[in-house]
Structures are given as C-alpha cells and as structure tokens.
Amino acid sequence: MPHRRRAARAVVERARDLRRDLTPMERRLWARLRRRQFHGLHFRRQHPLGRYVLDFFCAEYRLVVEVDGPSHHAQVEHDAARTEWLEAQGCRVLRFTNEQVRHHLDDVLAAIQAQIAPVAEEES
User: Fold this and answer.
1) Which DSSP string do the residues of 24-38 spell out, in sequence order?
2) What's the domain range around 97?
3) How many structural domains comprise the chain?
4) End-to-end CA distance of the chain
5) Coil, strand or helix at 45
6) Rounded distance, CA 87 to CA 73, Å?
7) What is the DSSP-derived secondary structure letter of residue 49?
8) Separation between Cα atoms, residue 97 and residue 29, nearest integer Å
9) Cβ neighbours of residue 63 under 8 Å, at least 6 residues apart?
10) What does the pLDDT read at residue 8?
11) How many CA atoms lie within 13 A of 69 on its CB side?
C-alpha cells in the first residue's frame, strides 16, 4: 500500500468547513453511513487525503464515496484526474449523483456493499 500522504493545512481547514456544511444529499447518505451502522464499517465524512477532500472514506477498505451535485457537470476532467490519483493511492472510488442518493438510496448502499464484499471475502 502506498505511503500515507499528509494533507496540507489548507485542505484540512477546508475539510472542517465542509463537515459543518454538508449538502442535503451528503447529509442523507451520512445518516446511513455514520456510527458504524452500515455493516459495522467506519466511514469518515469530508476526509482530507493529499490535496483532496473526500465526501466519505472507509479507510479499512480504502473506499471513497463521492456524491456529485450539478457543479460536477462542469468539472469532468478534474474529477477524472482526481479519481486517477486516488486509485494510484490504492483507493477505490464510487461516484453517485444527487439524484441517485435522493431517489435510490437503497441502490446506492447496495453498490457500496458490493464494493466491500469481495474485499472482505479475500481477507477471510
């Protein structure tokens, strides 16, 4: 596994601000992921990693979950570069739209579980 990268102070401060101001769809998903209530997994919200702030991160499985709002339509290249960097750090990245979280939350959670299940089987 690649070495741990410490986030810059500015990124840590931004993460703190974002934790206080979750979007409505981030808040909706967080309500299901927090306090190990989703399959006993520990997720962090607005977690700094390198120069990025991840919406949700499960360190145990190196799983990044992103909730993309309308602003992401204009930053496709940026998101692709970010995903590439995160994958180079050994992370798996799942992206969901606000609409998926709003209207299909159970499907979103099933997709997250599907990413974790194969890794958990390998470890046992």
Assistant:
1) HHHHHHHHHHGGGTT
2) 9-123
3) 1
4) 19
5) strand
6) 21
7) E
8) 11
9) 57, 91, 92, 94, 112, 115, 116
10) 76
11) 8
Does residue 4 belong to any structural domain of this protein? no
Which is nearest to 112 in space by CA: 47, 61, 68, 73? 61
pTM, full prediction = 0.82
What's 72's domain CATH number? 3.40.960.10
* Tokens coding 26: 């981030």
CB neighbour class for 122 (10 Å; exposed up to 12, middle 13-18, buried from 19): exposed
For residue 54, the SS3 value is strand
> CA-CA distance, 25 to 101, in Å (whole number)?
6
Residue 55 in domain = yes
**Structure token digits, residue 37:** 């209530």
HSE at residue 22, side-chain half, CA atoms within 13 A, is 19
**For residue 96, is it within any domain?**
yes
Q: Which stretches in the chain have pLDDT values below 70?
A: 1-7, 12, 14-19, 71-74, 118-124
Residue 41 and residue 58 in contact, taking contact as beta carbons nearer than 8 Å: yes
Residue 87 lies in a domain: yes
